[in-house]
Amino acid sequence: MLLIYSFTNILLGVLTVSLSILVLVIAYKKLLAYLGKGVPNKAEYAVLYTLENQPCKGEIEFFYELKSPKTVRLELLNSERELVTVIDERNATPGGTIVRFDSLTEQNGDYYYQIVTDNQKTIKKMRIENPR
Description:
The structure is a single chain. The protein is built from 1 helix and 7 strands; from the N terminus they run H-E-E-E-E-E-E-E. By secondary structure, it is of the alpha+beta class. The chain folds into 2 domains: 2-38; 42-128, Sandwich (Immunoglobulin-like). The strands form 2 sheets. The protein has a 4-stranded antiparallel sheet with strand order 4-3-6-7, with no helix packed on it. A hairpin with a 5-residue loop joins strand 3 (70-77) and strand 4 (83-92). It starts with a helix and ends with a strand. The mean pLDDT is 90.
């Protein structure tokens, strides 16, 4: 009789633990699905690559990538993040795009460059150091 009672308690304990783990796994999956609903689709955004960590001289090559066609504006901002000039504006096609800019037209110093589309604005920092 003692053996049967112990076996029943062990079986009931194992079933309780298994059911608890199953409920936790289901709740975890539901939570992940709920939290993932607001995650933006990366294919809708342009990727603006960083210039080398060294100061820029002469002609600068800006590079960005798109997964879908977009109207893209590339801007140069001063150290206070005020617009200096629009480097390029175009209806860009999917893939990589290189935009060349002559930095000799600007004073030496710290600048920002940004890419602007209908749904994003990405800003990066750079330094122009041309020999004068």
